[in-house]
Amino acid sequence: MIYAEILLEIHTKELDRLFTYKVPEALAGRIRPGSRVRVSFRGRPETGYVLKLSDQTEFGGRILPVSGVVDEDVILSSELMDLAEWLADYGFVSRAQAYSTVFPTLGNTRFDREKASLTLSEVGRQALETMRRCPSRKALEALAENGRTDWQDLARELELGRGILDRLVKERLVQLHPPLPGVFPVDLGSLTQAQQKVFRRIQGSLEAGTPERFLLFGVTGSGKTEIYIEAIKDCLSRGRQAMVLLPEIALTEEMIDRYQRVFGDRVVAWHSRISPGRKKDIWQRLQSGEASVLLGARSAVFAGMQDLGLVIVDEEQESSFRQSTAPAYDGREVALLRGRANQAVVIFGSATPSTETWQRTQTGEMERLTLNDRFGGSNLPQIQVVDMREELRQGNHTLFSRELTRLIDRCLHDGRQVLLFLNRRGYSGAFVCRACGHTVQCGQCDIPMTYHRVEDRLKCHYCGEHKPAVRTCPACGSDKIRSFGTGTQKVEEALRDVFPKARIARIDADVSMARGHRKGLIDDLKSGRTDILIGTQMIAKGIDFPDVGLVAVLAADLGLNIPDFRSREKTCQQLIQVAGRAGRGKVPGSCLIQTYQPENLAIVYGREDRYQSFLQRELEDRKAMGYPPFRQVMRILVQAPEEEKAARAARLLEKALEEEKSDFLGPVPAAYVKIKGMYRWHLIVRGPRLEELKEMVHRAIRGYAENESIPGVLLSVECNPGSML
Ligand code: ADP
Ligand code: ZN
Ligand code: ZN
After folding, report:
1. Cβ–Cβ < 8 Å for 335, 316
2. Tens digits of per-residue pLDDT, 645-671?
3. Ligand nearest 671 Cα, by number?
4. What is the CATH number of domain 378-425+491-621?
5. What is the CATH topology of the domain spanning 189-222+236-374?
């Protein structure tokens, strides 16, 4: 008798253990470790994952049989099972939840015949001897002569009507096979000298089959994607597969097209908009090796592949590679793990890499490859920084500097478009002096303190430090210090007052919920039906506007004042991205940045050619203040429908952490204290090594859960979170 050790899909901690079932005769050979099966548990039908098979069991009770296999074609490889175990530990979720994250929800596949290739069957060969002249006969003759042929090629060449090949398949005159593997020769000659040098280094690594890791640091338009494509060709020529991860927002039709033009049917795209049925088709094609290039957003990093040889993470600095809901994980970490497990080369690419990745190139964990020049040599737009303190001194109290008003006027006159960019949607908590730009920071944490109107106090959302709100600026003595924030809507109203005749549109998270609507707004801009588009950072990405005369950031400070240790890095990256939107057309546009803190590092170095210097300075500060990548940070977020409960649970965790003698901040209410009806408190744990931190937090949470867990309280833990709001 064969026994299966099964992890049930029920997502509770208490059931995070294995149950033994027996494999009935009828299912023998159809169940393997990694299979998803149906069983009966406490009288109810449940599903679970087979983790182990063995021919004996220590379990003495009555053993029920497995009732069925959910999907025989989809099995987790041992690599993905290891990954699920890793995810349970890293993401602080039950093993069952980790397995179901890695094991995708797949629907029924619709076999896409037109992607298949065909050969003549034995029946077909016999039929051919007696068949009269007709289109079917032509098809069979062609197959007899040419051997295996792609469905589409055959249909096109012989100009066959729709149903003919279908009928031949049904009558078993021809046989279906996966499409012919394409051959994609590397085209070195298409690359520039600089690109070739980078490519050769990657090729050497692919050839050696060592799991090397690269950062491809190349300015926007330097040809990073061209290099990815040649590297993928090289990888495929070795019979292996490639995975390209992109931020969801960059996974556009244009991007998919670009890869499909080269790799045709061998490319599959995986993102949140594809149906479960299609996902299953993709999964099977990747596992069988029929598809060889996977283009996908974050969750695609778990895809089962037959032989993964290359993993690319483009725009690696993007926060969308992190999943912050349970199980919280960083797609980049998973990409590195998969590289190691598969002996695959990993490439992170970016014009503005993250501080953490940059540090990895300093320590030798990753090798840096650099492309300094834009292909075709077009220039960076002129960037002008406007000091809003000076505007105030000159008596201008509006949101728009005089220079901005002048430039908008000129664009409207020339019939060119304007993009107005607000760094983030209305974070209004920061306390800023409009006369000198001073913001009140927490002395201990080096993050901006947040103003709380009701108590009229300033609070630090990392350590809990608080003090009465100041009336005059501690730096310059001005009384123009107050809480500061502007939403896109307010900008729109103010702009209509100044430019009543301009056609103004606004795109932000609310408006753009409907994809179609967002596209409509962008089309209006492209076709010249809109003069000025106001938006949040989402307009800065992925979209090319050919005739933009001016890109302006209204208040670069908004991003800087967010109480998050990454806010300076994000602001700097966003400024560079925004500037990249100008000057795409023939006549270069200009870029203007309004700020109350022109001396802030993010603004001083917020240009593509200065980004490297920014990283150096930022790393020094991170080191001094004890933030990643020098110290590891974990956030424990406690949520409850009543604030009192969230606070009480957070204090219990505090006690548990104190017993562990760990170094932590809080508990304090998070900056966004209430989201979707849940009150949020957090604790921030720090330490030199993530492994130790994780163990400590696991123990603290277990201690908390065993003693006095409070019903209705939700705990989630994130390692080095992308945001601490
Ligand atoms: P990145 O990914 O670094 O932003 P891309 O690969 O998209 O850069 O290149 C920017 C533009 O330059 C694209 O239109 C691309 O086709 C073109 N390009 C880059 N390198 C070459 C090359 N060697 N030959 C022809 N066109 C190139
Ligand atoms: Zn001041
Ligand atoms: Zn603090």
Report:
1. no
2. 999 999 999 999 998 888 899 899 988
3. 3
4. 3.40.50.300
5. Rossmann fold (3.40.50)
